[in-house]
């Protein structure tokens, strides 16, 4: 099968990145993937141990999420590089060695609460890293760019559902949302100042769920920041109960309302954006909401999960988190019209697929041996017990690359 194009994907080992890479490969694109592996699990196939995000000698093992993507699709990545997007020299070298048709940029820090605690890290990584990437693209003549944006750019809603003309930036309630807003403004300025750029900013709402196989899904490290993975960890008894952050929101049941979109619908939205951008040769800056087009409260999600899985979810009401807003859901008519795209999977599908992923992988991508070692329990000769905290992207190597 002839390739539809070669795509450079940042943050490829992450939740949205890995599912989107799967859809890209399934739909005929060759993917060169990069990730600094700071939140990725890399298993040494010889003993099942997770390493510190380092490239392994001999096996050059992929992050587990991407290894499973290759298995599901039955196709290899064109190449994988363990590198941070701030490493300008190395990324520039990757561009020099490949001819890319487009870039899809997922790499970012993304926890709303954490961004309020360490804002400088978010500005440095998210905004600074994106500017570095755009400079590299410009030097190498690659001007088709899909940006992983967020509904957080809207801040507190003036009206619902939110369409793409809703003001942005004015009411951003947290540094994470501000980084997405600042990047969008940079992209707008770039498209005005230089001809030839085709940019799509995809403002997506709350991705949940997993691939229907249950082989890949959301695997947060530490305490989950998002509702569905926390709920799933309660369901497999990794945690005793679910924390519901606030019941004093101005909503029907007092809990926050969000637009939840199945991760596979979101991944397909990225592929359809790329298909349309390349076919129609989009010009300038474009923005699209990707959501389900309706909102569900936290209690709605708990109820749907229990109904879909038969698993009871104990929960406690705790204080709301800094930066959380009452309710948010999308007007997705523009994406329907421009891409012929709409979210097709239901909230029950999201819950059922999340549960399939978590029940098949109770500890996420890590094996039980890895968890035992991390907890200081030696199993045979496995005794180093290092966590999966990532590294700075040094010692770059291409993994599973088809050298063309």
UniProtKB/TrEMBL annotation:
Q: Could you say which EC number(s) this protein's record lists?
A: 5.1.3.2, 5.1.3.7
The protein in question is named UDP-N-acetylglucosamine 4-epimerase
Q: Which UniProt keywords apply?
A: Carbohydrate metabolism, Galactose metabolism, Isomerase, NAD
One GO term of the biological process aspect:
galactose catabolic process via UDP-galactose, Leloir pathway
> What broad taxonomic lineage does this protein's source fall under?
Eukaryota, Metazoa, Ecdysozoa, Arthropoda, Chelicerata
The cofactors required by this protein are: NAD(+)
* The organism of origin for this protein: Oppiella nova
Q: In which pathway does it act?
A: Carbohydrate metabolism; galactose metabolism
- Residue numbers spanned by region Disordered: 376-404
- GO molecular-function annotation terms? UDP-glucose 4-epimerase activity; UDP-N-acetylglucosamine 4-epimerase activity
């Amino acid at each position: 099968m002839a390739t539809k194009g070669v795509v450079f994907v940042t943050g490829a080992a992450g939740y949205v990145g890995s599912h989107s890479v799967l859809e890209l490969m399934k739909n005929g694109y060759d993917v060169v993937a990069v990730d600094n592996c700071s939140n990725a699990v890399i298993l040494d196939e010889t003993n099942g141990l997770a390493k510190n995000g380092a490239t392994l000698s001999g096996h050059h093992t992929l992050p587990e999420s991407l290894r499973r993507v290759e298995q599901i699709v039955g196709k290899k990545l064109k190449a994988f590089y363990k590198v941070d997007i701030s490493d300008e020299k190395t990324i520039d070298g990757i561009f020099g060695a490949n001819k890319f048709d487009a870039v899809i940029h997922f790499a970012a820090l993304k926890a709303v609460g954490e961004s309020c605690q360490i804002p400088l890290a978010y500005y440095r990584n998210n905004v600074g890293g994106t500017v570095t990437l755009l400079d590299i693209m410009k030097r190498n003549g690659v001007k088709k760019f899909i940006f992983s944006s967020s509904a957080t750019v809207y801040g507190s809603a003036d009206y619902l559902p939110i369409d793409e003309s809703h003001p942005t930036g004015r009411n951003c309630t947290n540094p994470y949302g501000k980084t997405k807003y600042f990047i969008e403004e940079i992209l707008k300025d770039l498209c005005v100042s230089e001809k030839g750029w085709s940019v799509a900013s995809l403002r997506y709402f709350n991705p949940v769920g997993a691939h229907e196989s249950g082989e890949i899904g959301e695997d947060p490290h530490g305490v989950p920041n998002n509702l569905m993975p926390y709920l799933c960890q309660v369901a497999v008894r990794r945690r005793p109960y679910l924390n519901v952050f606030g019941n004093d929101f101005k909503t029907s049941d007092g809990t926050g309302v969000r637009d939840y979109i199945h991760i596979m619908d979101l991944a397909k939205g990225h592929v359809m954006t790329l298909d349309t951008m390349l076919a129609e040769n989009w010009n300038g800056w474009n923005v699209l909401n990707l959501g389900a087009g309706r909102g569900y409260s936290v209690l709605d999600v708990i109820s749907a999960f229990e109904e879909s899985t038969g698993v009871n979810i104990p929960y406690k009401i705790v204080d709301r988190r800094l930066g959380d807003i009452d309710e948010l859901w999308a007007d997705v008519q523009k994406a329907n019209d421009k891409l012929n795209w709409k979210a097709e999977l239901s909230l029950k599908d999201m819950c059922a697929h999340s549960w399939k992923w978590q029940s098949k992988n109770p500890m996420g991508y890590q094996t039980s041996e890895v968890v035992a070692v991390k907890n200081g329990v030696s199993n045979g000769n496995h005794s180093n017990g290092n966590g999966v905290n990532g590294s700075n992207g040094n010692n770059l190597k291409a993994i599973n690359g088809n050298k063309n």
